[in-house]
Amino acid sequence: MRNGLKPITRYATQRRQRGVVGLTLAIIAMLSVSAFVVPMLIRANNASRLDQAGALRTEAGRSAIEHAVWRLQEDSGFFGTLAGSPPSTLYQLNEGSLSADVTVATSSYSSPANDIELVVTTNTPTIPINTETQVDFTIRVFNNTTAAQQISYIEISPQGSVTTSFVSGSSSGFDTDNPSSISGGWRWNFWPYIEIGPFGASDTHSFSLDMQGGQNVYWLDVEVGVSGSGSVQVPFEPGVKATGISGLSMTSATVPSVAEAGVTTTFDTQIVLHNQGSNRDVTRIRHMIPSSLSYVSGSSFGVTSNNPTISSGTGPRGDMTTLTWNFGGFELATGVPQELSFKVAGSPAPGEYPSKSTFRVSGDGAPSAEYSASTGIQTAITTSRKFDLSIDHDDLQTNAEVWIYSDTPVVTWIDEQ
Questions:
Q1: CB atoms within 10 A of CB 84
Q2: CA distance 194 to 12
Q3: DSSP β-bridge partners for residue 280
Q4: What number of helices (H) and strands (E) belong to the chain?
Q5: CA distances (Å), 79 to each of 34, 241, 290, 349, 386, in order?
Q6: What digits encode the pLDDT tens for the residues 260-286?
Q7: Is 185 helix (H, G, I), strand (E, B) or coil?
Q8: CA-to-CA distance for 127 and 17, rounded, in angstroms?
Q9: In sequence order, which residues have a C-beta less than 8 Å from that of residue 15 and are 6 or more positions away?
Q10: Could you say which DSSP state residue 3 is in?
Q11: What 3-state DSSP class applies to 175?
């Protein structure tokens, strides 16, 4: 990625906007082609690149770039013309005095792993045992396709022997009304449908539940209806641990968090365990990753240099991989964090890839398969599409690098020869 630009700006098409986003400048020319208006582009705010872009000798190069990006965003059949290895297409643009041969190429895999992705988070991954506690949930719906999608309903269903009630008035996002009660849970029906824009655009729906149960892990099944496409389930359920052990928590981070889709990338993950209670012995650490990524053998360091046990096909959809490190027991002392770092690698398709980390301590009376503390579910990696444009016109060649994400094109590099 040139200039270190992070080409990510998310919003749903219900609140669709065009124009300046962050530290970017709009290209000034607009071109009307075949009665369609080409949307403005966004250009990276980098002095050397902007100076170079400003030195373009013809407006034709800029207009051709705008037209190519307009086709990528708005012409539903254009992606089907990209073929070969790497995928590319060549077309002629003739409009008034403008004549150009436009080549569009991408190294990105054009089809997402999951057209619609769900990430369900909670701010309360642990609650005290046998004590009614309000737990807040947020469902983020990502659309990884190249066209807008319509969301028709959301169903939630608490799992496990847990007493649960919906907190009246807690709905926000897609709908502020309370959901309807259904067998085993609740359901929101949306009319008109909720529209989520293409290229990784997203929107959220939030709510709260009152939960109470004995020492165990309880979870929430979530299903989202997509008009014309059926339904989508979460890659793994958000868990809530009812526990008598206090003071345990953990965090995780992945670098880079943004990468180009379809390009092999190595990601560094760091997990940090915290304890603000009594000293505990850690017996297990687990981390769930998408199946399109693989653990890099020999990359573990920190509390262990051992490779983990690798279990594939995990999660409700069977598209996650679980890494497990087992220990005889190492001390997690009060106020002394412990770290585990490792690497994973792969070339994920366009989309959002959630992860979840957990650890278990000795003396935890929950079933052996469960955990004592968790990061909860988080979006660890986002991969987006990058396109290389080459335009031949007026005995010149204009080249540009364009990222498209969340319906916003970002020009990260441009020059003319």
A1: 8
A2: 9
A3: 332
A4: 2, 31
A5: 19, 45, 25, 15, 13
A6: 888 899 999 999 999 999 999 999 999
A7: strand
A8: 40
A9: none
A10: G
A11: coil
Q: Are strands 338-346 and 301-302 parallel, antiparallel or unpaired?
A: antiparallel
pTM for this one? Answer: 0.79
Detail the DSSP E strand segments found in 123-264. 126-128, 133-143, 149-159, 163-166, 180-182, 185-196, 201-212, 216-226, 230-233, 239-243, 248-255, 258-260
Looking at every residue in the chain, the average pLDDT score rounds to 82
Note the pLDDT of residue 41.
53
- For residue 348, give the nearest of 8, 140, 111, 88 by alpha carbon: 111
Q: Identify the residue whose tokens are 């929950």.
A: 366
Q: Tell me, what DSSP letter sits at residue 64? A: H
Q: Please check the confidence at residue 17 and state whether its pLDDT lies above 50.
A: no
Q: Which two tokens stand for residue 358?
A: 């957990």
Count CB-CB contacts under 10 A for residue 384.
23
d(CA 335, CA 349): 40
Burial (CB < 10 A; 0-12, 13-18, 19+), residue 77, is: exposed
Residues with Cβ within 8 Å of 135's Cβ and at least 6 positions away in sequence, in order, are: 122, 123, 124, 127, 208, 209, 210, 211, 240
Name the nearest CA neighbour of 285 among 257, 312, 304.
304
| Residue in 309, 138, 371 with CA at minimum distance from that of residue 234 | 138
Token digits for 123? 């701010």
